[in-house]
Every structure is written in C-alpha cells, then in structure tokens.
C-alpha cells in the first residue's frame, strides 16, 4: 500500500489564470515585426508553487506513483481579523473559535490546481489523478494556515478493481476528523 499523508505549513493560494501576451520573434519579409502569442503565469503563483513543491519534496516517496492516484487536499486559510475579535467585557471570542468552512474566493478548483501542479513530479502524468476531493476551511482561533495532503495509490483502497465499491470505511479515519460526514 503506497500512501503519503503530510502537512505543509503555508497559507493556501489559488492557481492564477494565465495571461496572454505577445513575444516578438523576428521580422517579416516586409520589415514589420513578427509576434507569437504566449501565455504567461503570474510571478506570485509561480513562487507559491515552487515553495509548496520544495516543502513537499521531503515527504515524496522514493518511487513515483505509476497507477491511478487519489489526492485529498485540506486547505486551511488564515483566520480573518473580523473572526478574531474578543469581547471587551470578558475577553472571550465574539465568534466561535473553531474552524469554519471557507466560502469565499479563491475557488476550490483553483486551490486544487495549484497543489496538483506543484506535486507534478510525484506521478508520471497528471491524468493519473482520478479520485480526490478538496476542502477549504478557515483556521481555528490561534491555528496557523496550512495544507494537509493525502495521496495514495487507488488500488490501496480498491481491492477488487471496481471503483464503485469504494466505501468511506476504506479511507484512513484521521482524514475525516473534524468533517461533518
């Protein structure tokens, strides 16, 4: 059974949309400039993925995943200042101190895309990731933002080769702690 579970201590960020630009590639026969359309990635997005990749490398298995892969991501975002306010009377939090669902931007799929792009060296091809889910939550009071990532070979949870027979009991119990399933 090949599986990895690890935490990356950094604030989640989404994969930015590529920006289209033009790059001059030469001159036409009539002397006019010749351009080629290019897609450029945001510098901050590149840096975030590079940092995420370098922190995740210490958890990478010796061998790449070669079969179907499952990836589960828990993205815990920083707690906004509005949720950290304390009562002036007794010093207790005005909002419940636990985690809550993160329902604002960035979109879940953009967070997932950034993580999967950063972990591209873990498998042969992106198309191997065929099962997975991504959760977005706001950190509990005093908790640091982070990613929690679980990666496993699908055959580790699918003993009979039939993907429709996977049960919640097949997954590690620690993954569902704190989630309302």
Walk me through this protein's architecture.
This protein is an alpha+beta fold and 181 residues long. 14% of the residues lie in helices and 29% in strands. The chain is built from two helices and seven strands. The strands form two sheets. A five-stranded mixed β-sheet has the order 1-7-4-6-5, with helices on one face. A two-stranded antiparallel ribbon has the order 2-3. A hairpin with a 5-residue loop joins strand 2 and strand 3 (33-40). Helix 1 crosses helix 2. The radius of gyration is 21 Å and the shape is flat. The chain starts with a strand and ends in a 28-residue tail after the last strand. The mean pLDDT is 83.
Topology readout:
Elements: E1 3-8, E2 19-27, E3 33-40, H1 43-56, E4 69-77, E5 100-101, H2 108-118, E6 129-138, E7 146-153
Parallel strand pairs: 4-6
Antiparallel strand pairs: 1-7, 2-3, 4-7, 5-6
């Amino acid at each position: 059974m090949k599986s990895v579970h690890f935490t990356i201590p950094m604030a989640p960020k989404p994969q930015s949309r590529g920006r289209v630009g033009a790059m001059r590639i030469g001159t036409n026969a009539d002397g006019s400039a010749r351009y080629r359309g290019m897609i450029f990635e945001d510098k901050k997005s590149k840096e975030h993925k590079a940092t995420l990749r370098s922190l995740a490398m210490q958890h990478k298995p010796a061998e790449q995943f070669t079969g179907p892969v499952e990836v589960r991501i828990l993205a815990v975002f920083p707690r906004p200042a509005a949720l950290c306010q304390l009562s002036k009377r007794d010093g207790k939090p005005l909002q419940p101190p636990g985690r809550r669902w993160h329902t604002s931007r960035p979109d879940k799929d953009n967070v997932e895309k950034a993580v999967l792009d950063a972990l591209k060296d873990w498998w042969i091809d992106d198309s191997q990731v065929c099962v997975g889910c991504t959760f977005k939550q706001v950190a509990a009071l005093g908790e640091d933002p982070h990613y929690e990532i679980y990666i496993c070979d699908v055959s580790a949870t699918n003993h009979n080769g039939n993907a429709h027979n996977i049960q919640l009991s097949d997954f590690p119990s620690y993954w569902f702690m704190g989630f309302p399933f």
